[in-house]
Amino acid sequence: MVLFPLSVTLPVAALAAVLEAAWGYPPALLAAIGHPVMWIGSLIDRLDTTLNRPEFSERKRRWLGVLAVVLIAGIPVWITGAVLDMGYHFLPAPAMLGVQAMAACTLVAQKSLWVHVCAVGTGLRQDGLAGGRQAVAQIVGRDTAALDEAGVVRAALESLAENFSDGVVAPLFWAAVFGLPGVVFYKAVNTADSMIGHLTPRHAAFGMAAAKLDDAINLPASRLAALCLILAAPAERRTAAQEAVRRDAPRHRSPNAGWPEAAMAGALDLRLAGPRLYKGVRVEDAWMGAGTPDATVADLDRGLVLYRRACLILTGLLLAGAVLSMIPA
Q1: What angle do CA 245, 163, 158 make, to 5 degrees?
Q2: Phi, psi (5° rounding) for residue 207?
């Protein structure tokens, strides 16, 4: 991985946060060239087809899964490093800082997450429960057909909290540490986890390395995401949000998702997570928060306000770090 000083990486992360919040990923660019995650996904598909053969033993598939993760992360990072090396030969350093930031912002989901969660509230208001179920099905993996309005809202808020951590905070965190190669590395591993890191007969062995590595690299971001949500909470709810994280986050089946979900639940005085259905199978997840499970559309609106405040706090921290990193010692 190409190593840059913090005087480069922190400004890259801060500028990427600002650019992505303002413009997101332009639809015209998506139509013309697709999205970097789609390119990584194609590589993962190819490796899954080539290396994850059903006739291989579980042990062999586990080791081939390790090889796959090395390739999934290594190839995009190597290409990124080669392009940056070439760019620094032809462009001045300030211009390349901007190039890194513009590329990094394509791997942050701040604006798109806002749009998708807002769509759930719009669906509920305009088309009732059917509209809410249809919208929330675009952002969660659980069964949505049997959800009532409270279940739809809770699902949207849980997705908002969890994706704030792994779709916003984590890529910006790794950009702040390693610049563009850092966010590319993170997104490659995270995409691998979402595609092959499942406890299914096909992927339990082959995807184990991807799932374990994704857990590890999301650990710092999940804690930072919880902190941002606690700071973003109304003053009278900050203690409750902090207590919800301390009490409930360790009880979540994920080592990371419980942190932002518990912070969101405590800040909104709700109960999130809990039992839910995946492909007809009931999963007995622990509840996050000590409030009511009867969430409403108004609670979804409050969650979106909380999310926006948390994004502003995160961006502020990155900007402050960028300014401090450029002050001569």
Answers
A1: 55
A2: -95, 5
- 15 has a pLDDT exceeding 60: yes
Count other C-beta atoms under 10 Å from residue 281's C-beta.
Answer: 8
H or E, element range at 141? none
Instruction: Evaluate if pTM is beyond 0.85.
Output: yes
* Every domain of the chain and the residues it spans: 6-325
Residues 68-88: tens digit of each pLDDT: 999 999 999 999 999 999 999
Task: Say how far apart CA 112 and CA 167 lie, in whole Å.
Answer: 10
- The torsion angles phi and psi of 321, rounded to 5 degrees, stand at -65, -40
Burial of 328 (0-12, 13-18, 19+ CB in 10 A): exposed
- In sequence order, which residues have a C-beta less than 8 Å from that of residue 9 and are 6 or more positions away? 175, 176, 177, 178, 179, 182
Three-state secondary structure call for residue 278? strand
Question: How far apart (Å, rounded) are the C-alpha atoms in residues 54 and 316?
Answer: 49
